[in-house]
Specification:
Two copies of one chain form a homodimer. Chain A is α+β, with helices and mostly antiparallel strands and 250 residues long. The first copy, chain A, has helices spanning 13-26, 39-46, 50-62, 91-97, 116-121, 169-176, 193-199, and strands spanning 66-69, 73-76, 82-84, 102-113, 129-139, 142-151, 181-189, 207-216, 219-227, 232-239. Chain A has two domains: 13-76, Winged helix-like DNA-binding domain superfamily/Winged helix DNA-binding domain (Arc Repressor Mutant, subunit A); 82-234, Chorismate lyase. A six-stranded antiparallel β-sheet of chain A has the order 4-5-6-9-8-7. The structure holds a DNA duplex (30 and 30 nucleotides).
Amino acid sequence: MGKPVQNITEPPLYQQVKDYILDRINSNSLLPGMRIESEAELVAALNVSRMTVNRALRELTAEGRLSRRQGQGTFVAVRKPQAALFTIQSIADEIRARGGCYSCVIHLLEEEKARPSLAAAMELAPYAPVFHAIIIHKEDDVPIQLACRYIRPEIAPHFLEQDFTQVTVSEYLLSIAPVAAIEHVVEALIPEPWIRDLLEINSAEPCLALHRKTWVGNRIATSSTFYSPGSRYTLGGRFTPTSPGGIGVM
Amino acid sequence: MGKPVQNITEPPLYQQVKDYILDRINSNSLLPGMRIESEAELVAALNVSRMTVNRALRELTAEGRLSRRQGQGTFVAVRKPQAALFTIQSIADEIRARGGCYSCVIHLLEEEKARPSLAAAMELAPYAPVFHAIIIHKEDDVPIQLACRYIRPEIAPHFLEQDFTQVTVSEYLLSIAPVAAIEHVVEALIPEPWIRDLLEINSAEPCLALHRKTWVGNRIATSSTFYSPGSRYTLGGRFTPTSPGGIGVM
DNA sequence: CAAAACAACTTGTATATACAAATTTGTCAT
DNA sequence: ATGACAAATTTGTATATACAAGTTGTTTTG
């Protein structure tokens, strides 16, 4: 790690220090609760200034990866598996950010005729053609969510020809049309057997489902995302309420 | 703002700088998109070092309140449509609005000693006293949600003396103290037996749990609400995204 | 006139230094 | 032994300084 300045195209030093810690956490050579080196030790080991180490550790603490106690030391945080549902644009990025390996499997990508219930939800004529995509997203080859989408062909005529292993469905749709409005419904359920198979979960595990209805102009697209059990999902992190109350809690 | 050291019991300087900015944002004297003073101007105005100002602005940026562009300046962030997610004020009103009959049962209302895990979450000393309330809300005498709350006594000293069949806990808390921030976590789970009993559900039914952490000043209150199975909950109806993308779906 | 060069801002990063504050550990006196 | 105190270690904060790097004008130059 060069001392005075960083080379071009290299990430800044504090980021390199963060990565150095994160790599060891993600590879399980640092386990939750374990004490890591003191700032002084990291300074000596990495040949950077204490302020740079301090910034790295402080930011990792703010990000919930470490916990620090004055006079004692710095410890690997005992972390709940969390994914921010509403703040982060791409869960692929989030997985990569925490050092995981993102991959996805396209389970289905075809044109179908909309069954009456689906047609009604999408304000379509019964048995009108719709594009249907089912994609399983994985972190380190473990399925973490299954996304099931229906899209009106007029919105994205070339939808079926895309390579969604390279560009996510969201990214593609957002690139071709502006989203006018979104409606969310969240639900807890035991998924159907075919979904359980794809998510590799058993029949007793409750699963979080997020249903979205997206308006592109006056056209509607729907998606249902099933999140693998056990995880807890933060809704938008902290926010300051403009109107008090919220979420129907009494 | 004292330069060399901070007085005892005063928050650190960088926090005072953060508060100075946040106050002006919250009071709408700084509007979203507006440019704020440069670091150099804040240094001159507040009589602190640039590194202190830099830390304050950097942290506010990480918290999503500001956005910075090198060479241009620092701007008030255009807030994500988070508040739109949390629009329903009272499920009591909602039940009445759809013609149902609302009632509630106070299952527990007492002072307890906080177990260590709870104390940690509330940033309290272990076994410090906390108020604990468990209330079951019903629609036409059918339980639809169970709310479990822990409140620091300093926030609401007369909490135990209230009649929460008349005024809901939320209404009472909001009436005595302003809420600074809320954090939501949603989870799907099979609840513990005592919760299943109170909600009158069987052991195979998945249940939606909404955990809230509420900051009143720097004091924390927590609540967990368990929603009766089968229902689906709309998160704030439609909203128009200001920033495209979002919501962590791929 | 147009393009290039420059100056004047801005934020971004990195270092060295200093002291404060919390905790643990060691030592000494009783 | 035990309590009191001091020392060492650790994180927390604050400052001064320096240079890098992006943006916006202005000025110089061809």
